[in-house]
Design goal:
Structural class: mainly alpha
Largest sheet: 3 strands, antiparallel
Oligomer: single chain
Helix content: over 70%
CATH topology of the largest domain: Growth Hormone, Chain: A
Distance between the termini: 32 Å
Strand order of the largest sheet: 2-1-3
Radius of gyration: 24 Å
CATH superfamily of the largest domain: MFS general substrate transporter like domains
CATH architecture of the largest domain: Up-down Bundle
CATH class of the largest domain: Mainly Alpha
Length: 531
């Protein structure tokens, strides 16, 4: 690997650490939500809001991240984002109320704007030949963050349930969920410090009339190319001064940008509406629905992280070879199949408490109160949960739900496992990494900030809705129908991607801009070629 590529990769890895922290922050809540639900006596909507609050913050962060980075530079906004992650982690770990926890997580959500800025920055420092792989480093870090959070949650849960003197001394036994949230402080601090070691984006510098500052950075990143020629090519696409924000917004929604914007929105909505963050953020809760119990649910959630990492690596290896479009179509087809399997697995389940299973319940009060429904067979999780609510009350039923489902479920947990892990694999090889690569590629230089900000805003809004609704969906329409709905959205996404998405691999950002502007009706499925 040449020195220039090594330099680009180093900068990309540093910036992509924000993806690791996002992944950790986003998935660590999967282990926390059950504990805070009991501690703060939360209902389904409050549970959903604890999980989705960061994404609501991300809606705001995504709206301003692009324009602010256009105004002040990519690097300065990334540093501010890292500071927000540190503040959020500290406040979350020491939250004393539901309101404080939600506020702390919403601050962290503002930092989720790193998902918008990291691909933008990496695209602007990467050689065209390696751009897909390098932008995908951010997605790889996200899934590593997911995995580390699942492992950390499981390890801390095991420590809290044991007789370890260390766990008692550190307060893990009594405050396990605070430790789960507090661990984020360490990577957030490292990210904050390392960001001071990267340069400003040379394309941003040129867009803002700072060519002399950009030239040494370009020379370091692209030593095999003529630096002045690079500067000239970038200037020719947008001039040497970035247009005002309102002018860029007007251009973004102009007729010439319609195809690009529609492609961005289709991909951005598909990434979230197919249920990814319901699976990632509620993984232990989903596995608990299959009747395997809390400890096993946490351990199975680890497999979500492992599969995520493995298939993200596969996507990174294929994205510049196979292309963006084939990966998207393969992944969406996999999502349809996987969600159908999960939906069928939950649909064919039945639930019945027996005297033997009730005798194993840990609470004597619960054993007494469920006596009237012993021997009654319920055809769905929805019917069984309603019976539990009627006999135990919502608060008690929610507290002991995992144990009671485990005692009553007649279900094939392997089928559920195959469906969920198949979904994770399908997403990780397609929608996860490919979306951010595409968004960083399709918008022209001078509109990249506002373009990614707008599509990121819509992406975050859909993600927030999915996360907020998931607990309510489980309680109201049942698990099977919830997953079936995600599968139907994946079918719609497959059709739209097939009809609209062209191939973008192997071209420089300036070449892609020229092509999209010279032919706003790219023939679907064909590689882009410079005219």
């Amino acid at each position: 690997m040449s020195n220039s590529i090594s330099t680009s990769v180093f900068y990309a890895v540093v910036v992509a650490l924000g993806g690791f922290i996002f992944g950790f922050d986003a998935s660590v809540i999967s282990g926390v939500v059950g504990f805070v639900t009991t501690e703060f006596q939360l209902n389904e909507w409050q549970q959903g809001f604890v999980v989705s609050a960061p994404t609501l913050g991300a809606v705001i962060g995504s709206l301003f991240a692009g324009p602010l980075s256009d105004l002040y530079g990519r690097k300065k906004i990334l540093i501010a984002i890292a500071a927000l992650y540190v503040i959020s982690a500290i406040l979350s770990a020491f939250a004393v109320s539901y309101t404080m926890l939600v506020a702390a997580r919403m601050i962290g959500g503002l930092a989720f704007a790193s998902l918008v800025l990291a691909p933008m920055y990496i695209a602007e420092i990467s050689p065209a030949k390696y751009r897909g792989k390098m932008i995908s480093i951010n997605q790889f870090n996200i899934v590593v963050g997911f995995s580390v959070a699942y492992f950390a949650n499981y390890y801390l849960l095991q420590m809290s349930g044991g007789a370890s003197e260390l766990a008692t001394t550190l307060g893990i036994t009594e405050n396990v969920w605070r430790w789960m949230l507090g661990l984020e402080i360490f990577p957030a601090l490292i990210y904050f410090i390392l960001l001071f070691m990267i340069p400003e984006s040379p394309r941003w510098l040129i867009c803002n009339g700072q060519q002399q500052k950009a030239k040494p950075i370009l020379k370091k990143l692209f030593p095999d190319q003529d630096t002045q020629q690079l500067v000239t090519e970038i200037e020719q696409q947008h001039g040497d001064v970035l247009p005002p924000l309102m002018s860029r917004l007007k251009q973004l929604f102009s007729k010439n940008m319609r195809l690009i914007l529609v492609i961005g929105l289709v991909v951005g909505i598909c990434q979230q509406i197919t249920g990814v963050n319901a699976v990632y953020f509620y993984a232990p809760s989903i596995f608990e629905q299959s009747g395997i119990g809390q400890d096993a649910a946490f351990s199975q959630a680890i497999w979500v992280g492992i599969i995520n990492v493995v298939f993200t690596i596969i996507a990174i290896l294929l994205i510049d070879r196979l292309g963006r479009r084939p990966l998207m179509l393969i992944g969406l087809a996999g999502v349809v199949i996987s969600m159908s399997i999960a939906a069928y697995g939950f649909h064919q389940a039945s639930y019945q408490l027996t005297n033997e299973s009730v005798a194993k319940l840990t609470s004597e009060q619960v054993r007494e109160n469920v006596a009237p429904i012993i021997g009654v067979t319920y055809p769905s999780d929805l019917a069984f949960k309603k019976a539990l609510n009627d006999n135990l009350g919502k608060e008690v039923a929610r507290q002991y739900q995992a144990e009671l489902i485990q005692a009553a479920a007649n279900i094939n947990p392997l089928l559920i496992m195959i469906g969920i892990l198949g979904f994770v694999a399908s997403f990780a090889v397609s929608l996860g990494p490919v979306m951010w690569v595409l968004l960083a590629e399709i918008f022209p230089n001078h509109l990249r900030g506002v373009g990614i900000a707008f599509t990121g805003l819509v992406n975050s809004a859909v993600s927030f809705t999915v996360q907020l609704l998931f607990p309510w969906q489980l309680a109201t329409i049942g698990t099977a129908l919830t997953f079936l709905i995600y599968g139907v959205f994946a079918v719609i996404g497959f059709v739209l991607v097939y009809k609209l998405l062209p191939e973008t691999k192997g071209k420089s950002l300036e070449e892609l801009e020229q092509v999209f502007h010279s032919d706003n009706k790219v023939k679907q499925g064909q590689p882009l070629a410079v005219s």
